Automatic annotation (TrEMBL):
Keywords associated with the record: Membrane, Transmembrane, Transmembrane helix
Domain of life from the UniProt record: Bacteria
Species for this entry: Billgrantia sulfidoxydans
Record EC number: 2.7.7.65
PROSITE patterns per UniProt: GGDEF (PS50887)
Protein name: diguanylate cyclase
Residues annotated as domain GGDEF: 445-579
Lineage start: Bacteria, Pseudomonadati, Pseudomonadota, Gammaproteobacteria, Oceanospirillales
Keyword Hydrolase: no
Gene3D superfamilies assigned to the protein according to its UniProt record, in alphabetical order: 3.30.70.270
Amino acid sequence: MRCLDLPLRLFAPLVLLFFPVVAAATSSLDLDSGWEYRWGDSPTLEDGTPVWLVTDDEAAWQAIDFPSNPPGRDGNHHAWFRITLPDGEWRDPVLYIYSIDLIAQAFLDTEPIYQHGNFDARGQGPFIGWPWHVISLPEDFGGRQLAFRVYSNYTDIGLWGEVRLMDRPEFFAMILNRSAADLVVSAFCLLLALLAGSFALIHQRRQTFAGIGLFSLASGVMILAETQASQLLLATPLLWDYLAAAGYYALPVGIGLLLEPWFTNRLSRWIRRLWQLHLGYLVLALGLALSGVINLSSTFPVFDALLATSLPVLFALIAGHLKRLNGEQRLVIAAYGLFALLLLLDMAVAHGLLPWQRIPVSLGALGFSLAIVAISLRHYVLTQRELIGLNQRLEQQVADRTRDLQHMVEQLRAFSYQDPLTGLKNRRHFDEVFAHEAASARRGGALTLVMLDIDHFKHFNDLYGHDAGDAVLTATARLIGEHFREADVVCRLGGEEFVVIMPGATAQQASEAVERLLASMREQSFLHGGEALGCVSLSCGIASYPTHADDPTELVRLADMALYRAKHCGRDRSETYAPST
Ligand SMILES: Nc1nc2c(ncn2[C@@H]2O[C@H](COP(=O)(O)OP(=O)(O)OP(=O)(O)O)[C@@H](O)[C@H]2O)c(=O)[nH]1
């Protein structure tokens, strides 16, 4: 789990496609042959120089290709490795090592030149992380002996991964080039984690988003922590290893959270148990390591064994139920399958089951994140389409409702101008139409107003009752309407009083119409409930513009005066306004 780069032969084309910067070339020399090892720890001379660096006990040293895990460990926690450095032309040379299990001292001939970790009096010390190392060398190192004193109570002992001679600028370029892709992937995963985490807080499918969020966070943190450039950002190797462990251990928890709701009872219970087991291990292992009970390094092999078991179990469990899942869910499982495969390969390299090579674990994380993003984008497009459809339906509904509302408003408006008993227009309508006709008459034209009032209506009501009075009002209104022109506007002013606006009519024309109406009234026999109601008469007052008034608005008052005169003169008659009245 300590290596994240690419097995170049397999993945180089893919990586070049995504991350061309990774392919920058470096010239360097791998020290992967010519080593010797010796089990145990060297005694020291009085000045502290290890005896094994100065004595010539050649038989005690054994040849080994790479300074790691020599045969016959037999419970040994100490080993020494040495090599005679080759000649070469270097400018500011360094020795790059990735990495050391677990702590070590380096000597050039007898001179101590580097130390990783602290050795106590017994030559032991705690795990302080798995960083890469860069050891400065003098330019004349050719032919000199480089030796490592190593302590490890871990499964591996010695140097690990790569041991390479190079110039310092090339070393920096290599670190940056190797890290660029991982930094991008890590940022991508962390961004996805942030988005999924936010959705988990507000969305209904909380567990799904929590699973995606945790998985992305775990991958992002793990990749960032294992990226070689992280050590340049913050030289705290143990902290980075804790973060890498936390991310690594949390991966199966995240995927378990995501997968659990996709399956039914029994299967989902098994998935829950698996992720809970991993969560338990995460808390226990990191808790014990942080509290100093165990070394963080010792938690990795146990987790690797746990994951190597739980991964096949998980895939075996879900394999038979894939048909029930939809395409998106299968895509997520396929992406996780690829990621899991890379994790297992990386694990195999870390435990020496496969030769040293860089496994593109970050590519697995990228694939998973891209699958999630692709699914999210698809959902976004579908939601957008639904929204557009919904919007159109909504607009249609709003248009329908607006039309209904307008119709209602028109109806209400009509009602507000109508007298409900007689069906004639009411006083409000009269006021508006009269104002309009008066203005129009003022611009040139005649206008006549006729006021009509039923005679002794109070008495009538008293005699026949209010309902009979209503029937007479309705019949009278109809009769009035029948005796005037289309252009005339008949309104009920209130009570038993009516008015007729006659645009363009003279007083004479109005008088003739009124006389015909009065004659009809006299002949009209009113009925109510089958009962004859006797005669009802009308009194009328007429005033005309410009004959009787300088201003048309005067007509209301003048017609009213004429009506008063008609009443006064005995009712059942019509009077035209005369100035003397
Ligand atoms: N049935 C009925 N009666 C109404 C209505 N509106 C007003 N009235 C009655 O009409 C009568 C009007 O009486 P008055 O103003 O004294 O006039 P009148 O009795 O007709 O006397 P003159 O106008 O002088 O001939 C009152 O008794 C009102 O109650 C209505 O909508 N229906």
